[in-house]
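Table S7 (text form). Paired inputs.
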Amino acid sequence: MKRLIALDMLRGYALVCIMVDHMPVSVLRQGTLANFSIFDAAELFVLLSGFLVGLVWLSVQRSEGTRTAQWRFARRSFEVWRALVIGGIIMALLSAGLLAIDMNHTAVWHRYAEWVIDNPLGYLGTLATLWLQPNLLDVLAVYVVLIASAPLLVPVMQRVPLCFAAGSLVMWWFAPVLNAFIPNHRDGGLLFNPFGWQMLFYSGVAMGLYRQRIIPALMPHARLLTVLATGMVIFGSTIVIAAKFGEDALLLRNALKQVYGVIDKWPLDGTRYLAIMAASWLIAVPLANVMERLAATRPGVALQEIGRGGLWSFIICVLLSVLGDAFQMNPQDQGVLRRLLVDFWAILALWWAAAMWLRFGAPWQKARKSRAS
């Protein structure tokens, strides 16, 4: 399967945004995706993850069969779950270590640091059962559920795609009700509602599975779709930007609200979904060449490496969020320059960690899989 360098770059960009967005006093936080778009890096991460699942599934299915593809993603769901558990423990221990040396931080809740020390087995159990999803890792919890469903649901999508789409839409509509039945420490189920976010994830899967058929079918209508997609992206951006003007933009905000109704990230509202789907069309078709050129630049190559780091990059970005937040908050009242230096340090550290994984970790992992087969 040929790598799509723009896809890797966008995955890396999503991880950098996730990291910086969780550093409350970060300077670069003011320039991330969430500041000018109605959707943020979480939607980008889930959509791209679904797209990658579709690409890999198709490649494995063609070369080794459906059963092999199902087994591969069943194993992948375990790997994601394992990363969530290990990452949650390390994050809590890191937080405890920082608190022990009087380095306050707000990126992660301090109670995790207390629980992992006072009741390590209990903390491990709540992580392993998904009863608890620590903040910063909560999007990974919904990804565990979504990736675990792929071995069962992707074959259904392939057999009856239209029925699958209709069922996905119905499940999204009733997502808040369904999520409440999931046993959890929160009232109302998982923070990232899997019954809502499945629609975005499986939209990505469908794009990966059927892209060779979808794009040619849509190209005769490319101009109209580009106009509509641009309008949707601008509409979503206007909602976000108008909110920054407060009372000065109240009339515009009220007018927009009559159209979109309610914005609620956790069950994935329709406005956010439509906005990121519109953006995906713009990136995949009219801006495809621009994205390829950006991915080939030095910053683009660095983001590619971060994106190719996969779960490793995700866990490292979470830990760097906690460290970066602590460095920016201690001592208090730091200047812009010092906080900006911490931002750049965190991004460079994430890039270095991903590059080291690709050089040493990933080849070792591939060699182990090759011996096992």
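Next pair, protein 2 of 2.
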Amino acid sequence: MTASAIDVLFQPARIKGLALKNRIVMAPMTRNFAPNGVPNAAIAEYYRRRAAADVGLILSEGTTIARPASKNLPQIPDFHDAALDGWKQVIDAVHGAGGKMGPQIWHVGAVPGPGTDWTPAGEPEGPSGLGSPGKPFGATMSDEDIADTIAAFAAAAADAQALGFDTFEIHGAHGYLIDQFFWHGTNERGDRWGGATLRERSRFAAEVLKAMRAAVGPDFPIILRVSQWKQQDYKARLAATPDEMTDWLLPLVEAGADVLHCSQRRFWEPEFPELDGADGLNFAGWAKKLTGAATISVGSVGLDGEFLAAFTGKGAQTASLDKLVARMEREEFDLIAIGRALLSDAQWASKVKAGDQAGLKAFEASALATLD
């Protein structure tokens, strides 16, 4: 690939008042390295290295709101109380390296922690006490629980702004709390937080967005991560048609989301191939077309294997960026998030910018065990 072709990844972008030097985003990746939930100097340095190496926007690993069971592993970082001083250290380090960053704000919902007998301070909670369709787990949230959770999301938004972050992302994907409200298989409520339609089940996310928008004002950029697939069911689809996708996503943009981060496992796969063919718009492309919002795409960029294989110990070799460049050139989506490639190689973006394809590193699953 020629250096001129790669230039499309390094064009500046703007989200409201946030000016980005290029289109490359570091994807949120749970690391579970924060002692007692507090980010330390090692975490600050981990993000600083990527900021110093041409990543345009860093989105942190998921950080949890002030709810008793908002996380399901002990060293997932918090975004409240004692953890805030640690996050101030992180954002100062990133800014010192010339980078821009937002925390990903998260509540895991009714999802058990993988491979651990650790238990959170409170009972896991979800819209209907279901970890997956037909499988009870945790408590059904009361109206008071829901109100307190919305307030905790809003508090996290205010804290992100006060600490000096440039944006934040709300984690509304992958079968966690917000996504559990979207999904009919885990939301069986008969009140205003449920419903037969996706638009009705999106009310909780819309109220979270409205509260977070109110906390930071009209000009602070807000990103919302969404997905069709769930960790409980990789083949799940919330929206089977463009009309359903509009009913799902447009109210969320109207409620305050400036950017939709559209998670899929392979960015080159078309969302509705029956409508526009095998080379049709991907999830982020359709979301942009239907809502008018800016979008971030993601999914196995620069690697030949998708990310879920990493959790079974499988690595991935480097792969061509031709498909990415082609989609960026046709302005299918606005930004591209890079996950495992940046996990293995903090210099990935700088190498791509310099045309050093030979210097790119393969991904080894062992990278998940370190904070390099």
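The chain has 13 helices and 14 strands.
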